[in-house]
Amino acid sequence: MRRSVMGATAVAVLLASAACGGRGEEGGTTAQGECKGQQTTGITDKSVKLGGIYPLSGPASAYGQIPVGVKAYFDSVNAEENGIGGRKVTFVFRDDGYQPARAVEEARRLVEQEQVFALFQTLGTPSTTAVWDYAGQRKVPQVFVATGASKWGTDKSHPWTIGWQPNYISEARIYAQFLKGEKPQAKVAVLYQNDDFGKDLLGGFKKAIEGSQIKVVAEQSYEVADPSVDPQMRNLAGSGADVFLNVTTPKFGSQALAADAKNTRWNPLHIINNVAASLTVLRPVGFPNVQNTVSAAYYKDPVDPQWANDAEMKRYKAAMAKYAPNADVNNQYNAFGWAAAASFHKTMQAMKCPTREGLRDAMRNLKDVRVDMLLPGISLNTGADDGFPIESMQLMRFKGERWELFGQVIDTRKEFGPVTH
């Protein structure tokens, strides 16, 4: 069934391509109708070229597994389904070391030298922020950026850039709702990264607890260049807080967990944000030391036994074994990359024109699009006034050697209303 539906969709895409006419650079196409004059750099009837930017080195290098999952997905689709709509996908990714200036350099190389059709994922709020003006000026789609900053969905002056994962304000709202039920008089200590990422989630959390008995009693920030967060953790431990909100990227998330475990006099409920909730973060600390830590999820965990017979999980694991045999199939960041690539696949299928403008319009008009690696009940939705593809999450608690989902999927759109700035 899956192949027959995709086959039908591929025919539709090719017919749309034929209706739009020929190919060419911006302003030089021979296309007819609504696609005339639109950009076709990086895409032909038989191919599409994408470029990604990730921290393969530096303080956020744990995220370097994400493009491995992305590439395994595209390699699988190229081999098994002749690409997306008959177009074989070439995925080129570059290392920015989690440095915004390098991200801009790599974006220029990908767009101007590699001639990519779109930037599929720039990772990190600072790097994506550095790139989005350039992407907008060049009118290059910056699709499903790997960061949950709320501005990707609220800033209408950057229509070429869109996020993918739940935004940090929505995630913060879920933790606040959890505490209102679990610890309604919680005293919260917060460690956060001193940039738009950390401030976004912390600000969202503070706003979400307004009017409740929950109080933020201590805050400590860190810089990406800091060697350690041990000094900050010592200060937070003396705050008297009974909840610790850990708003960090993987390296610092692991350090904070380890510091918390060492301090036997401080035993708060530990909440860690999703972007640092991978087993690669928890394992170095020792699983016995991270029991009952709370986080939230939106895509399937390869370690969770409830997905053992899931068709998409089987497909993911088979493709990883074939196309990325040296990678850890249970690494959640690989699954993240797979889910994001599958979302891009669905978005390309929805394009009315096989052009950069067509992709921009498709990514902003997703209607209840199901992606099989997302948790049941979660789908992609965007619109003229909604630039957030995913706004639903489910809480999870660490038990034994893995995360266990609990409660129901929470649609933050319905539960809390739209995120605005």
UniProtKB/TrEMBL annotation:
**Looking at the record's lineage, which domain of life comes first?**
Bacteria
Q: Which UniProt keywords apply?
A: Signal
Q: Where does the record place the Leucine-binding protein domain?
A: 47-399
Signal: present as a keyword of the record? yes
**Where do the TM regions start and end?**
none
Under the heading PROSITE patterns, the entry gives:
PROKAR_LIPOPROTEIN
Residue span of the signal peptide, if any? 1-18
Q: Which family does it belong to?
A: Belongs to the leucine-binding protein family.
Against PANTHER family, the record matches this protein to: BLR6548 PROTEIN
What is this protein's name? Branched-chain amino acid ABC transporter substrate-binding protein
Give the source species. Answer: Actinomadura craniellae
The lineage is: Bacteria, Bacillati, Actinomycetota, Actinomycetes, Streptosporangiales
